[in-house]
Structures are given as C-alpha cells and as structure tokens.
From TrEMBL:
<feature type="domain" description="D-serine dehydratase-like">
    <location>
        <begin position="319"/>
        <end position="418"/>
    </location>
</feature>
<protein>
    <submittedName>
        <fullName>Amino acid deaminase</fullName>
    </submittedName>
</protein>
<dbReference type="InterPro" id="IPR051466">
    <property type="entry name" value="D-amino_acid_metab_enzyme"/>
</dbReference>
<dbReference type="InterPro" id="IPR029066">
    <property type="entry name" value="PLP-binding_barrel"/>
</dbReference>
<dbReference type="InterPro" id="IPR042208">
    <property type="entry name" value="D-ser_dehydrat-like_sf"/>
</dbReference>
<dbReference type="Pfam" id="PF14031">
    <property type="entry name" value="D-ser_dehydrat"/>
</dbReference>
<dbReference type="InterPro" id="IPR026956">
    <property type="entry name" value="D-ser_dehydrat-like_dom"/>
</dbReference>
Amino acid sequence: MAIDEKAVGTLADRVLGPEHKGLPPAAWGRTVRDFLTTAPHLDDFQTPLLTLDRSVLDANSAAMGAWAADAGVRLAPHGKTTMAPKLWAEQLAAGCWGITLATGWQAQLARSFGVGRIVLANALVDPVGLAWAAAESERDPDFDFVCWVDGVETVELMDRHLRSTSGAARLRVLVELGGPRGRTGARRVEDAHAVAEAVLRSERLILTGVGGYEAALADDRGPESLATVRYYLNELARLHRELADRGRYPGAAIVTAGGSAYQDLVVEHLAGLADEHGVRGIPTTVVLRCGAYLVHDDGFYADISPMTPARSEHPLRSAMHAWARTVSRPEPELALLDAGKRDVPYDKGLPVPQYAVVRGVPVPLGADAVVSALNDQHAFLRLPGASASDLPVGSVVRLGLSHPCTAFDKWRLIPVVDDASSTRPRVVDLVETFF
C-alpha cells in the first residue's frame, strides 16, 4: 500500500538546530541530508541520547514479515508506536498491508504523507475528525480508511455527525469486541451484534468486519492470561462467523487483532478465517496490528513476546538504546546519569544498564548493577560492591529500554546507528517523529 515517498524524502531537508535534543552544535544550521554526509559517529553527539540500530530494524522487519506471510495474515503495524513516517515507509515497502493509528489527528498526519490505507483502531466520534475522514474519502476514492464502533450510541452519534456534513461519503467501520475489565469494545458477542445491526440501519456507515485488542485483557504469559486471551479470540472469531452467516456484510470483511504480546495466539485462533478471494464465502482479510515488533525492547516485550529466542526460530531484538553519561559519584555504590523521565521510558519497567564506555573502551558492569529510580533528568544507577574508579564521572552507560511507545514520544529526531554494539557506532540516518 502506498505512501508518498517524495513527502517522506523531504524530511531530509529539515534544518537542524538546538531544538533537536542530543545533536551536536556542529549540526545546527545544516539539513539532515547535509549533516549525514559528514559521516558522524555516536561519540560526536551529546548525552542523553536515544538511538536506533539499523541492522536490527532490518532484521526485525524481515522476521515479522516472514512470520506473518507464513501464517497467511496481513500486517498493519500500529504507527502510534513511532509516529515516524520514515519508518512507516520502510514497513510499507517491506510488504505491510497498511498502517494503524489511534486518533483522528494521527490519521491526518499519516494521510499528509500519503498513507493510502489506514486502520483507525478506535471509535471516531470527534465531529471535526469525522468530517475530515468523510471529506478525504470523497476526495480520493482510493483512500482506504476504516475505524471502529463499539456501541449503539456511538453508531448513532457518528451517523448523525456525518449526515450533517456536506458530502455523501460512507465510512467503513469494524465492530469492536472487548471483554470484562478490558478497555473499549462491546463486552459480549450479543452486544456486538446489536452494534452491527445499528450500523446496518445507519445512512453513512458500512459494516466491514470485526476487531479488537486482546492485550487489554492480560499482561503476562501465565496460564490464566493465555486462557483469557484464547477465549477472547475465539469469541471474536465467533462474532465474525455469525455476522457472515447472517448475511450482515455487504462486501468483503476484515478481522483484526493483535498487539505485540500475543500475536501467536491471534494467528492460532484467527488465521483460519483468512479467505481473501472468497473461496469459502465472504472474502475475509485477517490483519495483525503489532506496533512494537520493528523496534522491540529489552523489557516488557522481550519478556512477553512470542518472538523471543526461547520461543521462536526468528526472534526479535531490541533496536533501541539510550546512552547516558555519569555526572556524579556521590557515594561508592551510586552513580547519577544524565538521562531521566524526560528522556527514557519508565511506565513498563526502568532502564537496564548493559555496559559502560570508559575512556572510549567498553567495559562490563557488575551483574547486580541496576537503575533504581528516575528523576526528571537523572537516573540512579546502583553499583553494589563497586568503587568510584569502576565508573568514573564522564563515562557513558548504554541502557536497555522497555516499551518503544513511550521512548519515541520523548524525541523529535532519533539517530540511527549502523551497529549499536560496535566499538564506535556510525550514525547513518536521523528519524523524525511527530507527537
């Protein structure tokens, strides 16, 4: 599916300045393209810094693409993870079916870069956003846009807003199924059928399938969590089959689920519904919306993902790291680093110290080294049994991170290095984000 490569290419014309955290003053006043011709290295940048690893991004993209293709499902990665059109373009070029977004504004941003197929994994009830979606769909009949509905009231409100607009475009919607104590979504299949019937009664909406988010119902891979997710996915499959059997779909259907924690279960329970050519009935596309696979992490997803070394022949690796400098050694077993809550994610686990660079030489940290807390601009690195000479002021520590969604939103421009594990990584690209 298309993206405007020319629009994405213009990001290289961005003029760099002090608003771009971590970049050296030598980059200020240059464009991204011009600065990269100087072949900068990581040690030319300031700390704190977030980086991406080019080789790992490519490997993760290939692994996930092959895994989805083998399963017979499509990928529409959740773009809100990175909000980086350059990375979206790479994902689409690698064969992704579309891009998923969470809000009307995010969809508008993606559309401004020419993304041709958008799944809005949310109900769109904002009148301004609805009017935009309808107008854009009418302006470009090739624009493939679909959003969610999870209640009769939602359907009626959307229909009323759309009927107040000047155009005649009809928006395609998926009925969202949720679960008890979950997030959004009709709580029971029976409730979801009532939502579908409301869509069929509406003038400006078209029933196009079903969807949901299984990870809202569990947060680990324990037996109880896996059973909850399996039950939910079976209910989602049942909802789709019942709608199809009752003739409720006016055309082809979409079935979508999948964060980056239980995509193996999504394939196990939903991939069999895929029938894009309608050989067995309603043409049906099964879509996974995994958002974190491209970047992955060294925390939450490293533990829960089915695509870890212990669970997969094609494991994902973390492509993101933070680099923080030791600014104080006030106690023998404590180092203060210059990265804090403004720089690194902390909502799904604190950063993990991986190694230090002392006077240009990588050195291991003790096995007990741990980041115990973050302030706005400081990390508390505990070093049991260490002395000040083990990690002198000025040393740089590489940190593993958890949860890419809350890493990217702290950075306007993220350097991409050729190999984050090399002695002196070279910066080969700069990825711009939009938050």
